[in-house]
Fold these 3 entries.
Entry 1:
Amino acid sequence: MTSEGASANGKTQESTPPLRVGVIGLGWAGQQHLKAYRDRAEVEICALAAMEEDLLEELGEEFGVENRFTRWEQLLELEELDAVSIAVPTFLHAPIAVAALGRGLHVLTEKPIARDAQEGRQMVEAARTAGRVLDVAFNHRRRGDVQELKKVITSGELGRAYYAKASWLRRSGIPVLGSWFTNKQMSGGGPLADLGVHVLDWALHLLGEPRAVAVSASTYAELGPRGRGGMARYSAMNSEHPFEVEDFASAFIRLEDGGTLVIESSWATYREQKDLLDFMVYGSDGGAELRAVGATDAPVGQLRVFTEKDGQDADYELTAQPGTAHQGVVSDFLDAIAAGPEEWPQHDGSVALARAEIIDACYRSAEEQREVRLDHV
């Protein structure tokens, strides 16, 4: 439906109606989505859903949203919706996304796409059937330092990238011991599923999206089961569960171009106190390294490029601006929707599903203590 308004010359002209969005889940991530939507003039936030009634009322007032629900099913019944953001525990991603897509809504969900690749496939298939956008929030690939390093690698300055290593490591970072995070059935996994999927995403993004063909992984649960390594940074459902996931994971990933990617992720391990987010790559003509000590608290990390000129070392450092984080995630989602129906099939969640397939293979490799080929997943 369109509305008419008067132009500067007095003639009437049609104006585009706002894109009407709802946000499901109002923890830290959901609030980032809200702030990003508020900054876009073409968007109207018309509904919120969350279990925490106090938070629902508070944010509803702050963002001027009258439609507030304690059940996500109620939000999806609104006829005026065009799109939804999903920022809830992982076990709810698939049921909410499939239901929303089935109602013809575009969907942006937090990472990982789902608890496993099987659920992720259901979401991708639902997006294809509905002909709608399904996007997954990988905000760390939108860091300014990651984007600056991407330019270097894409330019060919480093030659053929044949080996890379990436990690996100915490010393005491298990998010809420005894919550859904540490319940295998609800979360899908520990730091490999939570942080490692980010690591995998920015690493493959930097390398130009080579296909993974095999993985060999190990997982460990040395601190969590003893009640060590916990934190209270993130909100979570107040439930009591034994520690059923890993607290450290490492994976050796063979790539189709003959290259190798090694990833590490930890919630808890005895190392320096500050978190580390990093990426290192060796190429045939040079190498590069990104180190963000403090991880997400360090909006820009140290960037170094290692190369030579005329037989002499010609290493240098790069500077970068802070990235766009969730603002960039939401902006890309809105741009994909605005591109129109002909472009929507290009945004069906396939990239996030490929990440989930690799994570699944890593868990299988760790459990069976063998290399797992992706074509057998």
Entry 2:
Amino acid sequence: MASRLNPYLSFDGDARQALEFYQEVFGGTLTLNTYGDFGQPGSSDSGKIMHGMLETPGGFTLMGADNPPGTEHIPGSNFSVCLNGDDAAELRGHWEKLSAGASVSVPLEKQMWGDEFGMCTDRFGVPWMVNISPRQS
């Protein structure tokens, strides 16, 4: 899979409704995973969206999620730029450069869903997410 660059939107508990709306607008295939799907089944946040992805026939990719429990939702700054793919060397290289002099909120490391993932805000104030998936054989 080639690496992709796309927006990643954050929501205050209404990610499902928003992503379903964007699917109505743009068409395509919507995949939604909840916090309950990834190890928090009994919590009050188990039905909230941990990760959603809309892939459209026109080639758009839009990702989004509800803010993680305990984090503040700030309208107007509820986005990140997401780099994702399975070329680990390429994406780690991008991460090293983006995170140099940045504020790293999540170090690039293996996560509970099996991918390597990291988050930082670069020295220009732009929030980034990097997700490295295992190569598909």
Entry 3:
Amino acid sequence: MMDTKLSILFYSKTSKQTKDGLTPIYLRITINGERFEQSTQRYVSLKAWSKEGGRAKGNSEEARTINYFLDSLKQKVYDYQQRFCRVCYNYY
């Protein structure tokens, strides 16, 4: 079976900041050096975003909602990876 290196990153894209001062949150998936980027359709203020953690800062309802959504997206990526690996394993 092939070893696959998977990396998941959430980041705010400051170049697409809205008039309200909100920045869109993007998901970047890297598989064996190949990047895929997609908007999460969620927005956050720069003050409320942790660049290091790739999550919303704080314990507000908004931060908890955003972080829960990001965690569920990350889990979906891992689920797809598992399904893909099972298909590949059965193929070989």
